[in-house]
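Support reply, case 0932

Customer input (verbatim):
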Amino acid sequence: MSAYSCIRRLAASVWVGGLATVILGLALARERRRELARSVLPRYSTLALWSVAVLLIAGTLGGIAHVGRVGDLWGTTYGKLLLVKIGLALVL
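Our regenerated output:
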């Protein structure tokens, strides 16, 4: 397993695990839900943004490392699909 793959898994785990924790916490908060949401959601949003940024960077670098040469980005089907995926991620 490559270092990029480990980093992607860690970032995805932080993002999804944090989301699950926020949802569970809000579900259990009941009458204090709004107060909890006001304090937790901005913090989680920052964490989620950084997690997605790490996912995008590590995924891009891992994909380029997998292709081997920069010229293969345009010369192989995998490379072309990777460029499309990177472009879509940048738009989002």
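We compared this against your earlier run and they match. Two observations from our side: The mean pLDDT is 89. The chain is about 90% helix and 0% strand. Please reopen the case if you see a mismatch on your end.
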